[in-house]
Amino acid sequence: MPKDEMQIPTPARARPGLVPRFISWLFGTGDGGRSAAHGTHMELFRIRGELAVLRAEIEAMHAAVGRRDIATLEELLRGGNRRQIEALIRDRTQIVPLPDGSVLCRALGRFKMFTDAADGGMAPHLLLDGYWEYWVTEFLCRNLARGETAYDIGAIYGYYTILLADLVGPEGRVVSLEPNPWLHWLLRRNIAVNGLGGIVTPHRLAAAEAKHESVRVPALLVGPFAGPFANWFTFEEGRAGCPAPAVALQDLEPGSVDFLRIGVASAADRVVAGMAGLMDRSPGLRILLEFDANRCKEAPALLAALSGRYPLRFIDGDSLAKPCTAEELLTQRRVATLYLSKMEPR
Length: 346
Description:
SAM-dependent_MTases_sf, four-stranded mixed β-sheet, eight-stranded mixed β-sheet, Rossmann fold, FkbM family methyltransferase, alpha/beta
């Protein structure tokens, strides 16, 4: 059977799990008619048999889609359910610390990625799990097509940039913006090491409401203090920042865009204020926006502007886009990944 059609074997048994049955036997809450010795012998015999079956199923799963480089993200998603896919990706993780303050790891089972060794946010997930926000990753894999044009705003290392590039393929294109010079350098390295230079165009730019020669952007990651980018960063009230040129997305390039990811929650209102023209000329635009009512300065105005154009939806933990209201986002949920489009998601 071709690999693309393979399905990960799943057990057909409906019996209780091993742990509940063991606890039931241990505390005598199971069948009371058998002798203790006979019950012990029979239960251990069944456990050994089921463990043997489970080992065989795991070996079959590895033979189908594990223990090798996963060819495509589509194949990865066809491999099984979410927990199985996460386990397969995690099984492929590997890290290599480097002397320049970065750590090389493997993401999504096949992509090489340089991360910041001092990062306590995204990097630990990439280093140990091999993925970031899997529910969003899965949603993107279902909702992008070959040949499309995508923007990644606030790319950081380029996890989503690389994911988008793989999904749109050589027929498509990705534009990636990251204003932090240290992260922009890691982003460019990640694009190059994965051979995506022909698909992705990276810019050291911030997205804003209009063009600016220089704006100060916050910098949570600054690289080694003795590194080549150390002089770019200044500290005010204990917070690091750096200068960067800014552009309104509607003026970045002519033409329409199919997909736009906005990953800068603290500046989302400024980004959206500078993309009215882009939304007007992109009727099929799909937007994925990191919303944080605690960090966005003009959260009510932002939601009012977006809900005037698109239905409000958020990506839930099952990777499905579900309806929500501005009031819910401002009071109950407050932090969410929003899906904004006139197009129904898959």
